[in-house]
User: Fold this.
Amino acid sequence: MMLQQTQTGTVAPYFAAFLKKFPDVHALARADRQDVLSLWAGLGYYRRAHLLHEAARVVVNELAGTFPSTVDGLLELPGIGRYSAGAIASIAFDVSAPILDGNVKRVLSRVFAVRESHNEASTVARLWQLSTTVIPRKRCGDFNQALMDLGATVCKPKTATCNACPIATVCQAHALQLTQEIPSPRVRSKPKDLHLTAFIIKAGDFVLLHRRPDTGLWAGMWELPSAETNGSEAEQVGDAILPAGVRGSLKKSESVGIVKHQLTHRTVRFQVYRGHCKKHRLPASFRWANANDELPLPKAFQKILSI
DNA sequence: AAAACGGGGCT
DNA sequence: AGCCCAGTTTT
Assistant:
């Protein structure tokens, strides 16, 4: 689940910490979601953490702790789609199932000289078909992993090293000198601008944090109190989002500048303000947090707090 | 069919 | 500054 759209090198330390805390499916199933999110903090695509937690609960509560071993059974679990079901079935259970991830798409496109864009659903369907046809009868899991590793280490997007490729002799793109042209570039939408005003409100060693809703960007994660600005004055933003007690005793807050944070579909620009006050009782969605609390905080807010 | 969903590695 | 990464779910 962590590896979905995330490189293995990035995942490794998160995976180690996660398994140390939750050694098996039972430990994960009875965990608090906040603790699951804390170990996911910084990894991104936080819905994956929620879905994995749900999947663990299904395995324990509805499947008597036994993990599904078929593609169809795996597809029933939250957060497991066609790729993950095929990968788990073939690698863990030696089922002859195809996979199609970013690496395999690129490798198969080149080997079979598929020039159509991966944006087209029909192209992806064709690649799934090809992935099915190339599966061997034995050691299909090893074969699938080899396909992915070939894409990750040899048949790379920009610098394919065909002279080091074990299957260059059967690669149609190589024969036709089309390796650089395949796959054709993906059409991508431009990142949209998101302007947020964020407040660093401190009370001694504590900082005011707010829990985000369970939907949308950074769902269920904690944040510095913030809101979309849309041209309105930061002071009004503060009036709108800060708890009344905090607002009343807030010493003059001052701007500490702009923090830019780049996401795939958003360019987030934080206008950051700093202020301090005494600790107050807070509404349920707020907390006075210190370093020991380990609340799940997205990278964007980790960055702001490290200023 | 398209959008939403993070963050970082690599060129 | 782009492009991509062991994709899935929701709209």
